[in-house]
Write a structure and sequence with these properties.
Blueprint: E1 5-12, H1 19-25, E2 42-48, E3 52-59, E4 78-84, H2 91-102, H3 105-108, E5 114-119, H4 129-135, E6 146-150, H5 159-170
Parallel strand pairs: 1-3, 1-4, 4-5, 5-6
Antiparallel strand pairs: 2-3
The structure holds guanosine-5'-triphosphate (GTP) and magnesium ion.
Guanosine-5'-triphosphate is lined by residues 13, 15-21, 36, 38-39, 60-62, 82, 119-120, 122-123, 152-154.
Keywords: Cell membrane, Cell projection, Cilium biogenesis/degradation, Cytoplasm, Cytoskeleton, GTP-binding, Lipoprotein, Magnesium, Membrane, Metal-binding, Myristate, Nucleotide-binding
InterPro entries: Arl6, P-loop_NTPase, Small_GTP-bd, Small_GTPase_ARF, Small_GTPase_ARF/SAR
Main location: membrane
Length: 171
């Protein structure tokens, strides 16, 4: 078949938001890991869509590793930013990390697409994607294409919609 276009994707967001769970779910079922553990540093993963081959830098969201993120910004061509929609207490921390990302010199002036997953939509206390979008002030992002989807990293609900959007941005 045709050779797929390779895209470097950064997967960012606070610890425990569900980044690794989501990336794992995007892989073919025979390549999926059974147990997901907190990421140490980062992990490089791959998954395909109909036209793209994504190389993912799945970064640890733990505070002590967040300073690693910026070293991968230059080569990142797209971003997935994952939010735990049920973690109301840390929504402000997620917002601060997003602002730090958006103001970084390697990101600031680039039209890099950002896909937000308002993850853990299955939890009773989860906020809607509209509410998450408001709390993160996403409407202020004017110089980059962005999109937010409610998701469930465990069942995969919402992931396809998001990845389809991302693929459309990169064509
Ligand atoms: P770090 O690697 O530490 O940055 O965390 P992470 O963002 O990669 O989170 P990880 O994928 O390890 O998931 C953290 C926990 O959330 C795990 O217990 C997952 O099973 C759980 N989880 C992930 N997605 C969902 C979801 O949509 N709903 C629910 N209920 N739990 C989820
Ligand atoms: Mg992880």
């Amino acid at each position: 078949g045709l050779k797929k276009k390779e895209v470097h994707l950064l997967c960012l967001g606070l610890d425990n938001s569900g980044k690794t769970t989501i990336i794992n779910k995007l892989k073919p079922s025979n390549a999926q890991a059974q147990d997901i553990v907190p990421t140490i540093g980062f992990s490089v993963e791959k998954f395909k869509t109909s036209s793209l081959l994504f190389t993912v830098f799945d970064m640890s969201g733990q505070g002590r590793y967040r300073n690693l993120w910026e070293h991968y910004y230059k080569e990142g061509q797209a971003i997935i930013f994952v939010i735990d929609s049920s973690d109301k207490l840390r929504m402000i921390v997620a917002k601060e990390e997003l602002e730090t990302l958006l103001s970084h010199p390697d990101i600031k002036h680039r039209r890099i697409p950002i896909l937000f997953f308002a993850n853990k939509m299955d939890l009773r206390e989860a906020l809607s994607s509209v509410k998450v979008s408001q709390l993160l002030s996403l409407e202020n992002i004017k110089d980059k294409p962005w999109h937010i989807c409610a998701s469930n990293g465990i069942t995969g609900e919402g992931l396809q919609e998001g990845v389809d959007w991302l693929q459309d941005q990169i064509q």
